[in-house]
From TrEMBL:
Keywords annotated in UniProt: Metal-binding, Signal, Transport
An example Gene Ontology molecular-function term: metal ion binding
Matches recorded under InterPro entries: AdhesinB (IPR006129), AztC-like (IPR047701), Bact_metal-bind_prot9 (IPR050492), Lipoprotein_PsaA-like (IPR006128), ZnuA-like (IPR006127)
Main localization of the protein described in the UniProt heading: other
Name used for this protein in its record: Zinc ABC transporter substrate-binding protein
Keyword Methyltransferase: no
Domain of life: Bacteria
Gene Ontology biological process terms from the UniProt entry: cell adhesion; metal ion transport
Amino acid sequence: MVRRAVALALTAALSTVGLAACVGDGPGEGSIVVTTNILGDVAQQIVGEEAEIVVLMPDGADPHSFEISARDAATVESAALVVSNGLGLEEGVQNTVDAAADAGVPVLAVGEEVDPLEYQEGSSVGQADPHFWTDPERMREAARLIADQVIEHVPDIDAAAVEARAADYDAELAALDGEMREAFDRIPADRRTLVTNHHVLGYLADRYDFEVLGAVIPSGTTLASPSAADLDSLATAIREAGVPAIFADSSHPDRLAQVLAETAGVDVDVRSLYSESLTADGEAATYLGMMRANTATIATALTP
């Protein structure tokens, strides 16, 4: 009887410890959870060491198709704040974000708050375009929104420190905008035409006066696929416009872009952009680095 009583007491104690760990000390408990690595970097620049940031999207992943584990889903549900891109970008994560919002977790869907544009080309015409980060001016607004929401919702945050970091980062984003405009202004008007692997540069085109001729995948999502007629039509447009380069995303194989270049039957380069994901290291490990690398690639490819 004594041994049985001890065993029961030990079992009860262990159960209590386990329950406490699940409730109060889970992974990311009270953290800032960010769905994409691009916004994750922006949040990190603003928050610094003031709070824990958990980024769901792995480096080099496709935001349209990446999915999360049950452990990650639990982290979302226990967050102090969830920052998402929104506008349909995170197709494999949206249900988890929606469930967290329904449970009372504060959710900032950034894209909905930065004057979103609609797609002007392809099968997604009329739908909101989620790729707002290609415009650094909209990213300035995104950064301000993130800072405000962090200060409002994250417990025990040092608001003054967050505001100071946000101001510093805003100055860097403003400088990036100036650098991009200076580089793009050197491209002649008759070469300011963009062809991409899918419709991802609409905001960049709108801000810096480019024409989006078309995309290999004529959609706003990489989960779609082109038909032979789509490729043939775009190849004809490339030949007629004298497009010098096709820009493929670094997180996808460029096979279709290469096929399109061959179909066009003209001398067209296929260049890689970091358009939807950061990398673990190198020139695209931060948002600022990614945009500077892309600016250099576009300017070099289109300037004669």
